[in-house]
Amino acid sequence: MKVLAISSSPRAGGNSETLCDAFLQGAAEAGYETEKICLREKKLAPCLGCGACGSTQRCVQEDDAGSVLKVLIGSDVIVLASPVYFYCMSAQLKMLIDRCLPRFTEIKDKRFYIILTAADPNRGAMDGALAGLRGYLSCLPGAQEKGVIYGCGAWDKGDVLGLPVKDEAYQMGKNIGKEN
User: Fold this and answer.
1) Is 179 contained in some domain?
2) In which element (H, E) is residue 34 found?
3) Residue 18 lies in a domain
4) What is the Cα–Cα distance from 130 to 114, expressed in whole angstroms?
5) Residue 114: which CATH number?
6) Is pLDDT at 149 greater than 90 in this prediction?
7) Nearest to residue 96, comparing CAs of 13, 148, 38, 143?
8) Among 179, 154, 9, 157, residue whose Cα is nearest residue 81
9) Residue 37 lies in a domain
10) For the whole model, what pTM was predicted?
11) How far is Cα of residue 81 from the mean position of the Cα atoms in its chain?
Protein backbone atom coordinates (compact mmCIF):
# COMPACT_ATOMS: atom_id res chain seq x y z
CA MET A 1 0.00 0.00 0.00
CA LYS A 2 1.32 3.42 -0.94
CA VAL A 3 0.78 6.33 1.46
CA LEU A 4 1.19 9.81 -0.01
CA ALA A 5 1.32 12.96 2.09
CA ILE A 6 0.77 16.36 0.52
CA SER A 7 2.39 19.01 2.69
CA SER A 8 1.01 22.39 1.68
CA SER A 9 2.82 24.59 4.16
CA PRO A 10 4.92 27.33 2.60
CA ARG A 11 7.13 27.06 5.69
CA ALA A 12 9.69 24.24 5.66
CA GLY A 13 9.46 22.27 8.88
CA GLY A 14 6.28 24.06 9.90
CA ASN A 15 3.70 22.62 12.25
CA SER A 16 1.48 20.94 9.66
CA GLU A 17 4.55 19.44 7.98
CA THR A 18 5.85 18.21 11.33
CA LEU A 19 2.57 16.36 11.92
CA CYS A 20 2.68 15.08 8.35
CA ASP A 21 6.16 13.66 9.01
CA ALA A 22 4.98 12.01 12.24
CA PHE A 23 2.09 10.38 10.36
CA LEU A 24 4.46 9.10 7.66
CA GLN A 25 6.91 7.80 10.26
CA GLY A 26 4.12 5.72 11.81
CA ALA A 27 3.01 4.46 8.39
CA ALA A 28 6.58 3.53 7.41
CA GLU A 29 7.10 1.67 10.68
CA ALA A 30 3.87 -0.24 9.98
CA GLY A 31 5.43 -1.39 6.70
CA TYR A 32 3.78 0.91 4.19
CA GLU A 33 5.52 2.61 1.28
CA THR A 34 5.49 6.35 1.96
CA GLU A 35 6.11 9.50 -0.04
CA LYS A 36 5.80 13.19 0.78
CA ILE A 37 5.27 15.98 -1.71
CA CYS A 38 5.95 19.50 -0.47
CA LEU A 39 3.94 21.89 -2.59
CA ARG A 40 6.29 24.78 -1.78
CA GLU A 41 8.92 22.93 -3.83
CA LYS A 42 6.64 22.58 -6.86
CA LYS A 43 5.89 25.02 -9.63
CA LEU A 44 2.10 25.33 -9.60
CA ALA A 45 -0.12 27.91 -11.22
CA PRO A 46 -3.80 28.45 -10.47
CA CYS A 47 -6.48 26.93 -12.67
CA LEU A 48 -7.30 29.17 -15.64
CA GLY A 49 -10.91 28.01 -15.82
CA CYS A 50 -10.51 27.64 -19.59
CA GLY A 51 -12.26 24.25 -19.75
CA ALA A 52 -9.77 22.74 -22.20
CA CYS A 53 -9.15 19.81 -19.85
CA GLY A 54 -12.79 18.75 -20.18
CA SER A 55 -12.10 17.21 -23.57
CA THR A 56 -8.38 16.38 -23.26
CA GLN A 57 -8.03 15.28 -19.59
CA ARG A 58 -4.86 17.38 -19.65
CA CYS A 59 -4.21 20.90 -18.45
CA VAL A 60 -2.89 23.42 -20.97
CA GLN A 61 -0.43 24.72 -18.37
CA GLU A 62 3.06 23.27 -18.26
CA ASP A 63 4.02 23.01 -14.60
CA ASP A 64 4.31 20.37 -11.86
CA ALA A 65 0.56 19.82 -11.36
CA GLY A 66 0.43 16.93 -13.83
CA SER A 67 3.22 15.00 -12.13
CA VAL A 68 1.66 15.52 -8.68
CA LEU A 69 -1.68 14.36 -10.06
CA LYS A 70 -0.10 11.13 -11.34
CA VAL A 71 1.24 10.38 -7.85
CA LEU A 72 -2.18 11.11 -6.30
CA ILE A 73 -3.83 8.69 -8.72
CA GLY A 74 -1.24 6.00 -7.98
CA SER A 75 -1.54 6.19 -4.19
CA ASP A 76 -3.85 4.20 -1.94
CA VAL A 77 -3.86 6.51 1.08
CA ILE A 78 -3.59 10.30 0.82
CA VAL A 79 -2.79 12.69 3.64
CA LEU A 80 -3.70 16.33 3.05
CA ALA A 81 -1.78 18.57 5.46
CA SER A 82 -2.36 22.30 5.69
CA PRO A 83 -1.87 25.22 8.01
CA VAL A 84 -5.08 27.20 8.50
CA TYR A 85 -4.85 30.77 7.25
CA PHE A 86 -7.81 33.08 7.87
CA TYR A 87 -9.98 30.02 8.61
CA CYS A 88 -9.19 28.37 5.24
CA MET A 89 -6.73 25.80 3.87
CA SER A 90 -3.48 27.13 2.44
CA ALA A 91 -3.55 28.68 -1.03
CA GLN A 92 -1.04 26.06 -2.14
CA LEU A 93 -3.39 23.18 -1.32
CA LYS A 94 -6.43 24.88 -2.82
CA MET A 95 -4.46 25.51 -6.00
CA LEU A 96 -3.53 21.83 -6.27
CA ILE A 97 -7.12 20.75 -5.63
CA ASP A 98 -8.36 23.01 -8.43
CA ARG A 99 -5.69 21.63 -10.76
CA CYS A 100 -6.98 18.07 -10.20
CA LEU A 101 -9.87 18.86 -12.55
CA PRO A 102 -8.45 17.15 -15.67
CA ARG A 103 -8.31 13.73 -13.97
CA PHE A 104 -10.21 14.01 -10.68
CA THR A 105 -12.40 11.01 -11.51
CA GLU A 106 -9.23 8.88 -11.51
CA ILE A 107 -8.53 9.78 -7.87
CA LYS A 108 -10.98 7.08 -6.87
CA ASP A 109 -11.39 4.67 -3.99
CA LYS A 110 -8.73 6.41 -1.89
CA ARG A 111 -8.55 6.67 1.88
CA PHE A 112 -7.91 10.21 3.09
CA TYR A 113 -6.50 11.66 6.29
CA ILE A 114 -6.55 15.38 6.98
CA ILE A 115 -3.99 17.27 9.08
CA LEU A 116 -4.71 20.88 10.02
CA THR A 117 -2.79 23.27 12.23
CA ALA A 118 -3.80 26.70 13.46
CA ALA A 119 -2.64 29.30 15.94
CA ASP A 120 -6.13 29.47 17.40
CA PRO A 121 -6.52 27.00 20.31
CA ASN A 122 -10.19 26.51 19.39
CA ARG A 123 -10.89 23.58 17.05
CA GLY A 124 -13.74 25.57 15.53
CA ALA A 125 -11.17 27.80 13.83
CA MET A 126 -10.52 24.86 11.49
CA ASP A 127 -14.14 24.35 10.43
CA GLY A 128 -13.81 26.38 7.21
CA ALA A 129 -10.67 24.59 6.07
CA LEU A 130 -12.16 21.21 6.96
CA ALA A 131 -15.37 22.01 5.06
CA GLY A 132 -13.36 22.93 1.96
CA LEU A 133 -11.38 19.69 2.12
CA ARG A 134 -14.50 17.64 2.68
CA GLY A 135 -16.05 19.35 -0.33
CA TYR A 136 -13.09 18.18 -2.41
CA LEU A 137 -13.42 14.62 -1.10
CA SER A 138 -17.13 14.61 -1.95
CA CYS A 139 -16.17 15.10 -5.61
CA LEU A 140 -13.84 12.11 -5.71
CA PRO A 141 -15.42 8.72 -6.49
CA GLY A 142 -15.27 6.37 -3.50
CA ALA A 143 -13.21 8.74 -1.33
CA GLN A 144 -13.22 7.79 2.35
CA GLU A 145 -12.28 10.21 5.10
CA LYS A 146 -10.51 8.10 7.73
CA GLY A 147 -9.25 10.65 10.23
CA VAL A 148 -8.59 14.28 11.07
CA ILE A 149 -5.67 15.58 13.10
CA TYR A 150 -6.29 18.95 14.77
CA GLY A 151 -3.10 20.82 15.64
CA CYS A 152 -4.69 23.63 17.63
CA GLY A 153 -2.69 26.37 19.33
CA ALA A 154 0.33 26.00 17.04
CA TRP A 155 1.61 29.35 15.78
CA ASP A 156 5.38 29.35 16.00
CA LYS A 157 7.40 26.77 14.11
CA GLY A 158 7.79 23.75 16.38
CA ASP A 159 4.80 24.45 18.62
CA VAL A 160 3.31 21.02 17.84
CA LEU A 161 6.42 19.29 19.19
CA GLY A 162 5.19 19.84 22.73
CA LEU A 163 1.59 18.84 22.07
CA PRO A 164 -0.02 15.38 22.27
CA VAL A 165 -1.18 15.83 18.66
CA LYS A 166 2.26 14.83 17.37
CA ASP A 167 1.90 11.37 18.91
CA GLU A 168 -1.70 11.22 17.67
CA ALA A 169 -0.46 11.79 14.09
CA TYR A 170 2.20 9.11 14.51
CA GLN A 171 -0.33 6.60 15.89
CA MET A 172 -2.84 7.36 13.15
CA GLY A 173 -0.17 6.64 10.53
CA LYS A 174 0.87 3.47 12.31
CA ASN A 175 -2.72 2.25 12.47
CA ILE A 176 -3.66 2.67 8.80
CA GLY A 177 -5.73 -0.33 7.85
CA LYS A 178 -6.90 -0.94 11.41
CA GLU A 179 -9.60 1.72 11.30
CA ASN A 180 -13.21 0.98 10.40
Assistant:
1) no
2) strand 33-38
3) yes
4) 8
5) 3.40.50.360
6) yes
7) 38
8) 9
9) yes
10) 0.96
11) 4
